[in-house]
Design brief:
5 strands, 3 helices, binds FE2/S2 (inorganic) cluster
C-alpha cells in the first residue's frame, strides 16, 4: 500500500499506509489523525480537510480545481500549495506523498 506522511498541527509526523483509491482525507480519518475534520465527508463542500501538498508532490497533483478553489480562497491559511485532501486520491503512484495539516482549519 502507498504510504503517506502527514505533518500534524503540533509539528509531529505520522506515516501511514493508505489503501490505493482512497483519498488523503480518508487516510487521516481512518487513522484518527488530528486536524482534518472532513465535515462534509469528502464531497468538496466544507474545506475542513485543507492540507498543504509538500515539495514535488504539489506539482504532481497540480492546482486545485475551480470548485475546490472557491472554498480554499476564503481560508486565512490558504497558500499556493493548498488543496482539499478529500480531492487527492492516493494510488501506488503517490507512494511517499507528504502533506502538512494546517493548525487552523479556517
Ligand atoms: S471533506 Fe469537505 S471538502 Fe473535503
Amino acid at each position: 500500500m502507498p504510504s503517506v506522511t502527514y505533518v500534524l498541527p503540533d509539528g509531529s509526523e505520522q506515516t501511514i499506509e493508505v489503501k490505493s483509491g482512497l483519498s488523503v482525507m480518508d487516510g487521516s480519518v481512518a487513522n484518527n489523525l488530528p486536524g482534518i475534520e472532513a465535515e462534509c465527508g469528502g464531497s468538496c463542500s466544507c474545506a475542513t480537510c485543507h492540507v498543504y501538498v509538500e515539495g514535488e508532490w504539489a506539482a504532481h497533483y497540480g492546482k486545485a480545481s475551480e470548485e475546490e478553489w472557491e472554498l480554499l480562497e476564503f481560508l486565512d491559511t490558504v497558500q499556493e500549495n493548498s488543496r482539499l485532501s478529500c480531492q487527492l486520491v492516493v494510488t501506488d503512484a503517490e507512494d511517499g506523498l507528504k502533506v502538512t495539516v494546517p493548525e487552523e482549519q479556517g
